[in-house]
Amino acid sequence: MNSWVRIALQAVTYSGFAAVVGYLSASPAYDYAAEEKATIKLSLSHAAKRVEPCVRLTPEEIAKLAPNMRRPEKCERERLPLTVELEIDGEIVKRIEAPPSGLWNDGPASVYQRFEIAPGTHTIIARLRESDRRDGWDYTHTESVTLIAGRYFTVTFRAEAGGFSFR
């Protein structure tokens, strides 16, 4: 085959490929949020309390352990599930029980949810239970917020920072 023909075929093929990539980079259009609604994102990852509490070891029990295993406490790995509830204007919109991650159920539980809501002023209550209690919550945060159409509002949680954060 003539080298000019081969170069022409390669140019046509590459141009076709570039046209397809160019089209797919702009179409179909992706909307991150509905323009007429506000979006609330609930996003957190937290390790709940352990199923069994840690046991304090006596000096004799510690001495019986291998040198690399000597710790003042013995703790089981398994953790409780995490319960999260989100209430907006007096209505519970989501109640989630997230299991712990990990092979031995010893990691943090993760929650990610999105809710579209009418813009305006709303009262949002976020609750979290990390213990084995049946009633009540370990963390609660209530705030009146003004949501703007087409914008995100995030609800996050960090125990070391005091609990829920609304932004």
Plain-language structure description:
- With 167 residues, the chain is an alpha+beta fold.
- The protein contains two helices and ten strands; from the N terminus they run H-E-E-H-E-E-E-E-E-E-E-E.
- The protein has helices at 3-26, 59-64; strands spanning 38-46, 55-56, 73-74, 82-88, 91-98, 109-117, 120-129, 139-147, 152-158, 163-166.
- The longest helix is centred in the N-terminal third of the chain and has 24 residues, at 3-26.
- The radius of gyration is 26 Å and the shape is flat.
- The protein starts with a helix and ends with a strand.
Briefly characterize the structure:
The protein is an alpha+beta fold.
